[in-house]
Write the structure tokens for this entry.
Amino acid sequence: MTWSVTLTVDVVIQGMDENAAGKIVNAEVPLAEMFGYATDLRSATQGRATYTMEFARYAAAPNNVAKDIISKNQTS
């Protein structure tokens, strides 16, 4: 079986391995992209797939995200 779960920008696929249970995809994804991923993954795989997350590093937010945060938190 083949499943496809779509993530948006800034995803870096680092590799794919195979074991007796299936395929393992290693990728770096911004945390903001992971919200809702468990639901999408389980829906796409009829509840059979799992995932784990591990902190890799801090990175600067993209300019558009930074500007949005700053504008929302500025005092008048």
Notes: The CA atoms of residues 23 and 59 lie 28 Å apart. Helices lie at 31-34, 37-44, 63-73. The chain has a mean pLDDT of 83.
